[in-house]
Amino acid sequence: MDCRVHSVLAVLAGLLLAGCSGKDSLQQVLERGELIVATRNGPTTYFIDKGDAAGFEHELVSRFAEELGVEVSYRSRHNIGDIFDDIRRAQVDFAAAGLSVTPSRAAEFRFGAPYYDIDPQIIYLAGTAKPRSVEDLYDGRVVTMSNSSHAETMAMLREDYPDLEWQEIDDVEPLDLMDMVTTGSATYAVIDSNEFIANRSFHPKLRVGFNLGEQQTLSWLFSQRPEDDTLWQAANDFLTRLEEDGTLSQLKERQFGHAWGVDQVDSQTFNRRMRQRLPKYETMIRQVATEYQLDWQLLAAISYQESHWNPRARSPTGVRGMMMLTQSTAREMDVRNRLDALESLRGGARYFKKIKRLLPADVLEPDRTWFALAAYNIGRGHLNDARVITERQGGDPHLWSDVKERLPLLQRSKYYKTVKHGYARGNEPVTYVKNIRHYYNILAWQDIAANRPPPPVDAQEYVPDVVKAVDLTAL
Question: Which of 18, 162, 335, 386 has the most CB atoms around it within 10 Å of its CB?
Answer without folding.
Answer: 386
